[in-house]
Design goal:
Layout (H helix, E strand, L loop, with lengths): L6 H4 L19 H16 L3 E12 L2 E12 L3 E8 L3 E5 L3 E6 L4 E6 L19 H4 E4 L11 E8 L6 E9 L5 E8 L4 E11 L17 E4 L4
Parallel strand pairs: 6-12
Antiparallel strand pairs: 1-2, 1-11, 2-3, 3-4, 4-5, 5-6, 7-8, 8-9, 9-10, 10-11
Length: 226
């Protein structure tokens, strides 16, 4: 699966100005892990707008793909992902549809979408959807290591089997509860990692940032047409 198809399953989902490697500290007690997750939930429940730079790594047999750019999210379900390297791509969710535009291909892929579609994705808690502690089992993380000092690693295993991913690993600032990294392990064994830098909340974002205007001459492909 490419890192963008479908983007909603792994969005948000590497290493802008690659952070230095920091060995993980001793595993937190289960009670502390739950406290970190609860703090994360409270942190983003209050946020209306979220933006950050990201770098994403997608690893699968024979594939090691790295992309980077900037994303914006706004409640209840608006998103804009600008991929700049190694090629330009644009993903927009406007509350009714999603648009994936790759200028080099001269195509835009369109799919129907509402904020309810976020409920089955790893993105939902960033936009204040759902309850992490009810949706996931919180367990210590032993496979991955922290990459930023002063963070806690938490593995989230869905209480109900998800078709697209087996578990998530969150790297969370232990004092501010800001999210620094998301790891998504797909059921195929492939892994997507998102490293977030320059994260800002409740910034002023013009409404048209979440609207897509089809460029002249671009082919429109509607993915949910029968």
């Amino acid at each position: 699966m490419s890192a963008m198809v479908p983007l909603l399953r792994v969005c948000l989902l590497a290493v802008v100005a690659s952070p230095s490697f920091v060995p993980a500290e001793s595993v937190l007690a289960q009670e502390s892990l739950s406290d970190v997750v609860a703090g994360l939930q409270r942190r983003y429940a209050k946020v209306q707008v979220l933006m950050a730079n990201f770098e994403q790594r997608y690893q699968a047999p024979g594939i090691n793909q790295v992309e980077s750019g900037t994303f914006w999210m706004k409640k209840p379900g608006l998103m804009r992902w600008e991929y700049r390297l190694p090629e330009q791509k644009l993903f927009i969710a406007d509350g009714r549809e999603t648009f994936l535009y790759v200028p080099e291909d001269g195509q835009v892929m369109v799919r129907s979408f509402t904020d309810a579609d976020l409920h089955s994705t790893p993105l939902q808690f960033l936009l204040g959807k759902g309850d992490i502690l009810r949706a996931f089992k919180v367990v210590p993380e032993n496979e991955f290591r922290s990459r930023v000092e002063g963070t806690a690693l938490v593995r989230l295993e869905p209480n109900r089997p998800e078709p697209d991913y087996a578990f998530l690993v969150l790297e969370v600032d232990a004092s501010t509860y800001d999210l620094r990294r998301i790891v998504i392990r797909e059921r195929t064994g492939s892994t997507s990692e998102f490293f977030l830098t320059d994260l800002r909340t409740d910034v002023r974002v013009p409404g048209d940032r979440f609207r897509f205007r089809v460029p002249t001459g671009v082919e429109i492909i509607r993915l949910d047409e029968k």
